[in-house]
Amino acid sequence: MESSNLTSVTEFILLGLSSRPELQMYLFLFFLLVYLLILLGNLLIVLLIFLNTCLHTPMYFFLANLSIMETSYTSCVIPQMLGHFLSERKSISFSRCVTQFFTFLFFGIAECYILSVMAYDHYIAIRDPLRYSVIMNWGFCGGLAAGCWVGGFIASTVDTVATFQLSFSRENVINHFLCEMPALLHLSCTDTSHVEKVMNVLCIFTLLCPVTFITFSYAHIINVVLHIRSAEGRRKAFSTCSSHLMVVMVFYGTVISLYIRPRSLSSPKYDKIIAMFYIAFTPIFNPLIYSLRNKEVKITLRKLLGKTRDT
Fold this sequence. Notes:
The chain is mainly alpha-helical. Helices cover 72% and strands 3% of the residues.
């Protein structure tokens, strides 16, 4: 069929998580709670960092960026899901689908970069603690954070332009709860090989390169820590990095399992489960991991809640 004979769709129908009407209200209440917890946890982290001058350090500056990114890409998806749980026709206009696709990728890719920057920050803090404040000065930290945001913008723009040059005229039903690349590739009625090549190249720069950098950073960190003579010093060093490492493993593990695999092995059901994990559940765990394992954050939270007296 010639491309000139194809007509573009004006909207997509999202099948969502379940088509069973009796489950929609339960799903709505569950994900409303999940979304509120995500907002509360991540925005509380940002507030605590803002209020406590002791937390005005590069590590917490990057953590605040991470929380903002997680809140943002979650907000691109869950509010729409909540609305669809309460409506019979789960439609999204073509322009809104493009917007959701772009913003979701933008914040998600920026998070991939900020996690690698946080690994570098930990590496400098452990390898060269005496010169840490000189190396990780605010100008340099601001540049690193800005690079993460700009990198996310560029990569998401390229991916969005490539994906929405495809034709979706034969079918407009997406077996997903958001406009995500794997689902759109399944839906397209034209050759998607060039888009898959673009996605593979972007995955190298947004997933494999950051993961490789983080791996090498932690390999050097472990080497440095093992040469610390004091057992207490080794414990503190590992404690500093363990929270970030847990977040990295959970986030990258789910994203890589979705995007870096042969298309023939993908299935809508599997894609929805994996996407739900890193969209809805990872952003809940991250504030808990950083707050429950961090003494300064817990102290600031107690002060905010009025549970400790000012000294």
